[in-house]
Design goal:
The protein has helices at residues 3-25, 105-108, 229-253, and strands at residues 38-45, 51-57, 63-64, 68-73, 82-85, 89-90, 95-100, 113-115, 125-133, 139-147, 159-160, 163-164, 168-172, 193-196, 217-218, 221-222. It is elongated. β7 (95-100), α2 and β8 form a beta-alpha-beta unit. By secondary structure, it is α+β, with helices and mostly antiparallel strands. The protein has a six-stranded mixed β-sheet, with no helix packed on it.
Length: 254
């Protein structure tokens, strides 16, 4: 086999291996982990019924919110006292606002969904879960984020001053890229949240994150704007086979 043919064959094989490696090294995209990139980005616990939760989509794909629920645990309870099923579609880098139906008009103006159910006070834990179907037909609850500590009553609030869960607004720091999926760990809002005085609503309806997704993800693989990895792999494999057959035929005829 001529040296040139050997080199072409070697190049094709190397390209094929590189293409496969490219698929594996782009296995995840978006802001955070697979279970954590949907998280609470703002919390409003104000006067009267001025209560709202903002949810940020840090995935690289739209999310069907009908598979998500907000569960609220009153006064240290280990079982949820209020469960609210969300609705609609949340696009990448956008937020969804859930509010009390009796909240201030400034909150209702940006609310995507309202609830007549009893919401939260400063000592109530809040959990964002996703209902996920399994191959055997069963379903499991995947926790994406928790505000507070489930099963623990802090008294009146977690935190202190403006950065507390009572009579304050909390906004997630822009550097945070995933939620707290462990509802039983201790909660200190000052670690991941900025605090604002009671009845601060101006930030509801938008969230600034340093990890806003720039690419769409399908399952585990990154979608490219050019030829897909599968197409590239197939072409390289086909080229390798053709080069090998051509060299073998030339050798047979000589």
């Amino acid at each position: 086999m001529p040296r040139k043919t050997y080199l072409l064959l070697l190049f094709s094989i190397v390209t094929l291996i590189t293409s496969v490696t490219h698929v594996n090294t782009h296995a995840q995209d978006g802001c955070g982990s697979d279970d954590g990139a949907i998280f609470f980005s703002e919390y409003v616990e104000g006067s009267s019924n001025n209560k709202a939760l903002e949810i940020f989509n840090g995935y690289g794909q739209a999310v069907n919110l009908s598979n998500f629920k907000v569960r609220i645990y009153f006064n240290g309870n280990s079982n949820p006292n209020t469960t609210i099923t969300l609705s609609g579609t949340l696009n990448p880098g956008e937020v969804f606002v859930l509010a009390d139906d009796g909240a201030d008009s400034a909150i209702l103006a940006v609310a995507d969904q309202t609830s007549t159910a009893s919401l939260f006070n400063g000592n109530d834990a809040i959990e964002l879960i996703q209902i996920t179907s399994q191959q055997d037909g069963t379903t499991i609850n995947v926790t994406h984020d928790v505000i507070g500590q489930i099963g623990y009553d802090p008294g009146s609030e977690w935190g202190s001053g403006n950065t507390s869960t009572k009579d304050n607004t909390l906004r997630r720091k822009s550097s945070v890229s995933s939620g707290d999926s462990n509802g039983s760990d201790t909660f200190d809002p000052s670690v991941e949240w900025d605090g604002y005085p009671k009845d601060t609503f101006g930030g509801l309806g938008s969230h600034t994150a340093t990890c806003i997704p720039t690419a769409v993800t399908f399952g585990k693989l990154k979608a490219n704007t050019g030829p897909s990895n599968a197409v590239i792999i197939t072409l390289m494999l086909g080229l390798s086979i053709l080069l090998f057959l051509g060299a073998w035929l030339r050798r047979k005829t000589n």
